[in-house]
Amino acid sequence: MLARIQNAANGVVSKAQAYTTKSIYYSKVVGELSKQVYLKEKLQPPSVGDFQTVYTSLYKQALSLALKPKQSLSLFKNVQKDDLIKYGAYGVQLAGLYSLGEVIGRRKVVGYSNYAAHH
């Protein structure tokens, strides 16, 4: 009985080590690739002033919409058919990207493998 437990524990430990090794390797590869793209594209993080400008304007817009609900409703009433189509297309694209992420995460197109058996 003790031998079975030790074998099972050794198996779990070896799988965990292999997974950790793969994870570290791929994270280093992605880090190096990101570094190369960052340097080649001459990217730089946004400044504090940029953050303040963006979030201040968003706060002011949200505050004005909250204080004037009738004008906010008129924005929705004036939406054109082309705008609805454009935003609908954006929604479909976002749903597709989310679904693609789910498929990649599960490594299967449909369903989780034996999810009910594990819980």
Automatic annotation (TrEMBL):
GO terms for molecular function: proton-transporting ATP synthase activity, rotational mechanism. Keywords: ATP synthesis, CF(0), Hydrogen ion transport, Ion transport, Membrane, Mitochondrion, Transport. Belongs to the ATPase g subunit family. It is found in: Mitochondrion membrane. It comes from the Eukaryota. InterPro entries: ATP_synth_F0_gsu_mt (IPR006808). It comes from Lachancea lanzarotensis. It holds the Pfam family ATP-synt_G. GO terms for cellular component: mitochondrial inner membrane; proton-transporting ATP synthase complex. GO terms for biological process: cristae formation; protein-containing complex assembly. This is LALA0S10e03004g1_1. Its main location: mitochondrion.
